Amino acid sequence: MVVSIERSSRRARRFRGIAAAALLACVAVPACDDEPDPIDPGDDDPFVLAETFPLDAPGRAFAIVEDAPPIALVASEFHSDIAGISLKPGSLASLFELEAPKGPRAICASSRDVLVAGTSSASVVRYELEDGDLVERETVEVDGPPTAVACADADGDGVTDFAAAVGFEEEATIIPFGSGSLAPGDGVPFASASSLRFADVDDDGDLDLVALATAQTSLAIVVREGAGYGESTTLDLPCEAPRATAAMGSATIAVACDGEILLVENPISDAPTVTSIEAQPALYDVVADDFDGDGNLDLAAVGIIEHELEVWMGPTAQLQHYEYPVARGPIALAISRSQSNEDSALIVLSFEQARLSVFEH
User: Which residue from 57, 244, 321, 329 could staple onto 285, CB 3.0 to 4.6 Å apart?
Assistant: First the structure.
């Protein structure tokens, strides 16, 4: 089923003509070693830049394992390796580096389980964090390059569930794997996905699959039914260049687009509603969570043109907006819940300057 949706407001600013080479513009250019100008946090600023960590190679994607302390796993598509970085407050440090499947384009983590997409090797590899190291547990070859992966305990049984988006254009599918293993389930046809995640879109307590196709500006939602998944629902999005999604509580999906974030409510209903939040151009990632424990879901996003972390906090109808400069080329964003005294921290991965930046609440 295909559903078209209209948003309730138009975005206030628009950016055109984004060059595909923007991500690569500063690699190996001396000027890109410059850090962003520091800003003095105001009394009302919820986050402060605590630390930055230089990486040996530009990272394409990363995930956070909530160990003690948390560990950032950074996948380098150029070097085909995974670097483990300790996020211990005040002393970020390299823990390990291991060979990854060729062309690691996506990575996810849930509990101590990790899934990596080897795009060039057409394989998906499952790891487990054990005694501070990543141990390879299982490798599965798939019928095309995996473009996105997802990890979560989808049914609350304490075991991680896995999924991958595989292939390009007409040959692309979403593959749900078995619980705790990479035993493939029935594939669901969908356009090439740039983002895949578990989210509760029907408010039943189980996590469903949400895939995003940037070229087609559409979402595919595959609802969990018992131990398996049903048919998919496709939604055409009223925005340009959608890049990433985040679960905004139950039954709402946040979509990072060019110049705005869309909040898609009740996405599998007959009449989904959309709210547009103005943002910087060329957003590349978005996260949603209760950053400060006040009971309201907050948002954060990064963009590769203005090189900023944007944060929106408070009730949706009264959001407070904050901007923070980051190292050039921010392409991925994650939240760590146990970074410091169980408070939240936002972790930014910058491609051009090969940096991790930690913003503490």
Answer: 244
- C-alpha dist (Å) from residue 206 to 153, 195, 268: 9, 20, 15
Cα separations in angstroms, 53 against 85, 107, 128, 140: 9, 19, 24, 33
The CA distance from 197 to 63, in Å, is: 13
Q: Which strands sit side by side in the sheet containing 2-4, from one edge to the other?
A: 2-4, 228-236, 218-225, 208-213, 195-199
Spatial CA neighbour of 24 closest among 58, 49, 47, 53: 58
Closest CA to 358 of 91, 11, 3, 20: 91
Mean pLDDT for 207-230 is: 91
Ramachandran region of residue 132, left (φ > 0), alpha (ψ -120 to 50) or beta? left
Q: Which residue has the tokens 């060039």?
A: 120
Contact of 288 with 310, CB cutoff 8 Å: no
Angstrom distance (rounded) from CA 18 to CA 54:
27
Q: pLDDT tens for residues 320-336?
A: 999 999 999 999 999 99
Residues 6+ apart with CB under 8 A from 49: 38, 39, 324, 357, 358, 359
pLDDT digits (tens, 9 = 90+) for 9-47: 433 333 222 332 333 334 333 334 555 554 455 557 899
Do the Cβ atoms of 254 and 267 come closer than 8 Å? no
- DSSP 8-state class, residue 192: P
341: left (phi over 0), alpha (psi -120 to 50) or beta: left
Type of residue at 186: D
Contact between residue 219 and residue 210 where contact means Cβ atoms under 8 Å apart = yes
Instruction: Give which of 69, 59, 143, 155 is closest to 106, Cα–Cα.
Output: 59
DSSP 124-140: EEEEEEETTEEEEEEEE
C-alpha 88/C-alpha 32 separation (Å) is 26
> Is pTM, for the whole model, over 0.70?
yes
Give the integer Cα–Cα distance in Å for 71 and 135: 15
